[in-house]
Amino acid sequence: MNEVQIIGTGSYAPLNIMTNQQMSELVDTSDEWIVSMTGIKQRHISQGENTSDLATKAALEALKDANVKPEDIDLIIVASTSPDQFVPATACIVQGNIGADSAMAFDISAACTGFIFALNIAMQFLKTGDRKRALIIGAEVLSKIVDWTDRNTCILFGDGAGAAVIEVGTKRGIISVDSASEGKKFDLLTCPTVDVINTFSRGKVDFKAKIDMDGKEIFRFAVNIIVSSIDKILKENNYTLDDIKYVVCHQANFRIIDFVVKRLKADKDKFFVNLDKYGNTSAASIAIALDEMNKTNLLNAGDKIILVGFGGGLTYGASLIEWTISK
Ligand code: ACO
Fold first, then answer.
1. What are the tens digits of pLDDT across the range 273-308?
2. DSSP-derived secondary structure for 135-169
């Protein structure tokens, strides 16, 4: 089996920023409530760019960072809850945009755990030798599926994309990836598409793609699953939290991360947080965080980090990574 490592990262968020103050002009909320209940101060909201546009920009930046040409990519996976269209896959649009003509490209749907699932799938392709170099992207324009009249959800989400290039190499960069689903709880976080309306059924076509969520249950699930995922991946690989430089949780809510820190009796500085600037960007959040850490030189070759995702599905997963990019 081959070893697999991350060789470059990229990210992109729409230039337009929406503050909590602007949010309070839309729904009955306040900066104070949003900050104290979530830690979010602002989010980026697209003004016309679609998910593939964000994904393409993040992808090009990751390729540049990795010093890899698009034609040398042989696998593209886009994780998204908000793809451009039913068909084609957003990954195929990205492939066309960047000219990665040798790649197989497809999308996956695993909500906020999408980047971890994509990493897991790509790693399997690379480990077996079927593919050599993959571009994995988490990209969302959630603003097009947010219910802008629902203060329980619309304050949480933002638009953005993050990407990583991973390739077969000699170093054991991606040490372990674990991913799982709990389909019994599928209805805790949903976004419908279209009703079954056809020539044999009656009724009017109602396109009702709006995010709906049981916030309290998701909160509970998130705290429990982050703690158990971290415990499991550490034990399986004979590490303790002391061996880990940073834990990068899906950036949903600062209070979720705070609960996890307390539960694990961990050093809070070990938990990377940038949700104050982006809000919850679902499948993109971990990838955006990883790129920020890379570009701000928080990571040195040899550092071990844990990525942890959770989200609709329900889905969850974690990855233990040794950083292999030298400054
Ligand atoms: N502004 C002001 N008040 C609000 C707002 C708002 N935006 N939203 C709710 N409230 C009010 C409620 O109406 C309620 O008022 P009441 O007591 O008079 O009835 C009060 O605040 C408390 O509301 P709750 O919904 O009970 O608040 P809760 O403690 O559950 O916090 C929150 C809500 C922040 C959404 C929390 O449940 C949460 O963060 N859950 C996790 C959600 C999450 O992270 N989802 C994404 C993960 S999966 C994925 O990323 C796709």
1. 999 999 999 999 999 999 999 999 999 999 999 999
2. EEEEEE-GGGTS-TT-HHHHTTB--EEEEEEEEEE
* pLDDT tens per residue, range 145-193: 999 999 999 999 999 999 999 999 988 899 999 999 999 999 999 999 8
Average pLDDT over residues 13-39: 98
If we measure between CA atoms, which residue out of 124, 295, 152 comes closest to residue 215?
152
In total, the chain counts a number of residues equal to 327
Query: How far is the first Cα of the chain from the last one, in angstroms, to the nearest whole number?
Result: 28
Domains assigned to the chain: 1-327 (3.40.47.10)
In 22-132, beta strands by DSSP E:
42-44, 75-79, 104-108
Lowest mean per-residue pLDDT among 8-22, 144-158, 202-216? 202-216
> What atom of ligand 1 comes closest to residue 37's alpha carbon?
34
Tokens of 148: 């802008």
Residue 244 CB less than 6 A away from ligand 1: no
Q: What distance in angstroms lies between residue 191's CA and the mean position of ligand 1's atoms? A: 18
The DSSP secondary-structure symbol of 133 reads: E
Local structure of residue 71 (DSSP, 8 states):
G
Best CA proximity match to 2, nearest among 104, 122, 103, 163? 122
Angle at 299 between CA 297 and CA 303, to 5 degrees: 165
pTM exceeding the 0.85 threshold for the entire prediction: yes
Pick from 31, 151, 152, 316 the residue to mutate for probing ligand 1's pocket: most ligand atoms within 8 Å of its CB: 152
CA distances from 164 to 11, 58, 229 (A): 9, 9, 22
Ligand 1 atom, smallest distance to 222 CA: 47
Does ligand 1 lie within 6 Å of residue 37's CB atom?
A: yes
Q: List the catalytic residues.
A: 112, 250, 280
Tell me whether strands 17-19 and 174-181 are parallel, antiparallel or unpaired: unpaired
Q: Reading across the β-sheet that carries 315-322, which strands appear in turn?
A: 174-181, 315-322, 304-311, 246-249
Average pLDDT over residues 254-261: 98
Mutate to test the pocket of ligand 1, among 218, 221, 280 (most ligand atoms within 8 A of CB): 218
